[in-house]
């Protein structure tokens, strides 16, 4: 999966991950709950609150309404986790914050052979691990080889190495990857590179969360120095990071877990935190309540996420063993399409997101214009309850006493997995219950704090889904291939919702092997068209990134894309790298710039993606939109 995805999920990436608790929006309601006044972190650690006092350091505090799923680069898929990993480790390449084009990372340049089956990367010579060891091409080779030979190590990013034949490091600065067939993602391998001398001693990659010994050895712009589950993640600036231009202005970053998003918004109002983002965005009520407030700026830009309904097409393992208890009615394409023709996406955008989103169409958000796809007029499954009823009739589910009844005499009753921490899920669930009820279909909205258990077990009919999409779409497409299915029932896997189809797999292989951007984009759009027609995924909306920060504490911070984009959950570390605190001379006050440092809080909540986060999909889905 692509990191991110975000992966991350994602991310979400992928991603998210999945997330933070959001305020429940009743249809059309805009009430802002001030229960947030109890803005206390979960299991607060008193000594942590004083961290900004130590030595007059400038401390950036990020307030989270989402927990870290893992600090292991091989397992993490929630957006918060992959965002932290981008600070801890260098990746082979990075994305320019201005327009997402690929720029050097751990690799300074790359060159394919004439047949494009061998790629040679020049690994920078000025990178070292935080314990003093030199970071080399051997570490990159170890990372990729471990993913190629250990299924657990391939949990988060295995799709990147599935086509690798051999990876070697002839020298400290040369990495050579031989492919089985051409692979278009070779300049966007969103994989954190780990130190071989540390990770070679790990016995079980499926259980090692990289959270036992601090500081954690890394080579990114920050070093993780401390972590307490559901309390905080603490990082300090890495003085030896190779990128020297405009070094980070903050000495430390603390990601602190809050009990919910309202609490963080209340803290922003009080000036206790400096930055708040939502899950994946502030709710319309929260954003509206903050606009016009003194010293608070609301940032809104096109999001990199989609918000969808995913169906259970029948959970199965790679060898074809079926498991779970998904409703067999959803194996019928007509039933799936009938349900989606009863979803009024305009109402969802207008009433639930209150205009802070774009109506859903294809799988890739419009922010990524090269891959964005829209159905033709004749193909579009537009809102039409009458047409939906006819499809159910054709599928054998006749209307009897107000209920759709199958040939077996059983009523068509469905369940949808809902993230208890996501107000959008709850609000949309109410609409679905009403719309599908009029169609004669029963619906139970099953809201859980952690949806990963039933999702992995295939014990659901439908689920609210979402991912943060990377500039390269390979990851979020790969989670729907047969290769992503679990090896064993009820175990985490790279799959999103157990889709496995030969035509989709063939198209996936073609886009992966196509180096011509225009031709590759066409294959990607064909995959989106297939997903749309199949009825397995119904993308209802593309939520905007809506976040807010205090201008009396943050002097400047970079969005991605620079012109109009998001601050939290970027495809890189640019926001935290660029964040500049307000000084005494800027603010004319010692309150926000004294030796206590600037406290920056950000609430993160991710949509679980899809389950999966792969915890989202892999480790998965404890909340929505978690993947990078």
- Total number of strands: 24
Overall mean confidence score, pLDDT:
85
As laid out across the biggest beta sheet, the strand order is: 14-20-13-19-17-18
In which range does the helix fraction lie? 10-25%
Q: List low-confidence stretches.
A: 1-54, 588-628
Largest sheet: 6 strands, mixed
Distance between the termini: 9 Å
What gyration radius follows from the Cα positions, in whole Å? 23 Å
Structural class: alpha+beta
Q: In percent, how much strand structure appears in the residues? A: 15-25%
From the spread of the alpha carbons, the general shape counts as globular
Can you offer a commentary on this structure?
By secondary structure, the protein is an alpha+beta fold. It is 22% helix and 20% strand. It contains 16 helices and 24 strands. The strands form 7 sheets. A 6-stranded mixed beta sheet has the order 14-20-13-19-17-18. Strands 1-10-9-8 form a 4-stranded mixed beta sheet, with helices on one face. The longest helix is centred in the last third of the chain and has 18 residues. The chain is globular. The chain starts with 45 loop residues before the first helix and ends in a 10-residue tail after the last strand.
Short note summarizing the structure:
This protein is an alpha+beta fold and 628 residues long. It has helices at 46-49, 79-88, 137-149, 196-199, 261-270, 284-290, 333-340, 345-352, 385-394, 423-439, 452-457, 474-478, 502-513, 517-534, 574-578, 584-587; strands at 59-64, 93-95, 102-104, 107-112, 118-123, 164-171, 174-179, 222-228, 232-237, 252-257, 275-277, 296-301, 305-311, 357-359, 398-400, 403-405, 413-419, 442-448, 462-468, 537-543, 545-550, 554-556, 580-581, 612-618.
């Amino acid at each position: 999966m692509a990191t991110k995805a975000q992966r991350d999920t994602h991310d979400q990436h992928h991603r998210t991950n999945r997330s933070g608790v959001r305020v429940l929006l009743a249809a059309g309601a805009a009430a802002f709950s001030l229960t947030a006044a109890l803005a206390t972190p979960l299991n607060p650690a008193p000594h942590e609150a004083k961290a900004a006092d130590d030595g007059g350091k400038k401390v950036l505090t990020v307030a989270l309404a989402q927990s870290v799923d893992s600090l292991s680069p091989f397992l993490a898929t929630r957006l918060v986790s992959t965002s932290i990993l981008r600070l801890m480790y260098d990746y082979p390449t990075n994305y320019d914050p201005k327009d997402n084009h690929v720029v050097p990372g751990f690799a300074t340049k790359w060159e394919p052979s004439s047949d494009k089956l061998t790629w040679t990367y020049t690994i920078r010579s000025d990178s070292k691990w935080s314990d003093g060891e030199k970071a080399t091409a051997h570490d990159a080779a170890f990372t990729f080889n471990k993913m190629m030979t250990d299924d657990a190590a391939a949990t988060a990013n295995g799709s990147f190495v599935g086509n690798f034949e051999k990876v070697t490091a002839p020298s400290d600065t040369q990495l050579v990857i031989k492919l089985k067939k051409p692979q278009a993602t070779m300049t966007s391998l969103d994989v954190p590179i780990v130190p071989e001398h540390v990770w070679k001693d790990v016995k079980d990659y499926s259980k090692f969360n990289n959270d036992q010994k601090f500081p954690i050895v890394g080579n990114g712009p920050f070093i993780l120095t401390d972590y307490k589950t559901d309390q905080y993640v603490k990082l300090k600036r890495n003085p030896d990071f190779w990128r020297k231009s405009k070094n980070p202005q903050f000495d430390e970053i603390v990601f602190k877990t809050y009990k919910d998003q309202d609490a963080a918004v209340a803290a922003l109002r009080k000036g206790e935190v400096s930055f708040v983002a939502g899950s994946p965005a502030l709710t319309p009520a929260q954003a509206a309540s903050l606009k016009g407030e003194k010293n608070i700026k609301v940032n809104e830009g096109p999001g990199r996420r989609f918000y969808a309904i995913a169906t259970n097409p029948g959970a199965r393992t790679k060898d074809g063993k079926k498991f779970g208890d998904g409703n067999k009615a959803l194996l019928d394409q007509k039933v799936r399409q009938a349900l989606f023709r009863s979803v009024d996406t305009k109402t969802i955008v207008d009433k639930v997101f209150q205009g802070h989103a774009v109506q859903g169409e294809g799988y890739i958000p419009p922010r990524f214009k090269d891959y964005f796809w829209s159905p033709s007029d004749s193909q579009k499954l537009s809102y039409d309850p009458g047409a939906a009823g006819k499809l159910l009739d054709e599928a054998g589910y006749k209307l009897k006493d107000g209920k759709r009844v199958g040939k077996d005499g059983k009523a068509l009753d469905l369940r949808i997995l809902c993230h208890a921490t996501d107000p959008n899920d709850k609000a949309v669930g109410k609409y679905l219950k009403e719309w599908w009820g009029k169609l004669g279909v029963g619906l139970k909205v099953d809201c859980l704090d952690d949806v990963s258990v039933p999702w992995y077990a295939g014990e659901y009919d439908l689920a609210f889904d979402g991912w943060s999409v990377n500039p390269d779409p390979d990851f979020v497409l790969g989670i729907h291939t047969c290769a992503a299915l679990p090896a064993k029932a009820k175990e985490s896997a790279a799959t999103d919702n157990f889709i496995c189809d030969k035509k989709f797999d063939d198209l996936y292989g073609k886009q992966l092997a196509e180096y011509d951007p225009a031709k590759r984009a066409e294959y990607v759009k064909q995959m989106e068209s297939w997903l749309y027609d199949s009825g397995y995924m119904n993308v209802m909306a593309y939520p905007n990134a809506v976040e807010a920060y205090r201008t009396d504490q943050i002097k400047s911070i970079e969005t991605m894309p620079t012109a109009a984009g998001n601050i939290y959950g970027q495809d890189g570390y640019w926001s935290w790298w660029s964040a500049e605190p307000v000084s005494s001379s800027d603010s004319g006050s010692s309150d926000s710039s004294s030796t206590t440092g600037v406290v920056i809080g950000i609430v993160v909540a991710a949509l679980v993606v899809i389950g999966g986060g792969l915890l989202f999909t892999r480790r998965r889905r404890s909340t929505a939109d978690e993947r990078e």
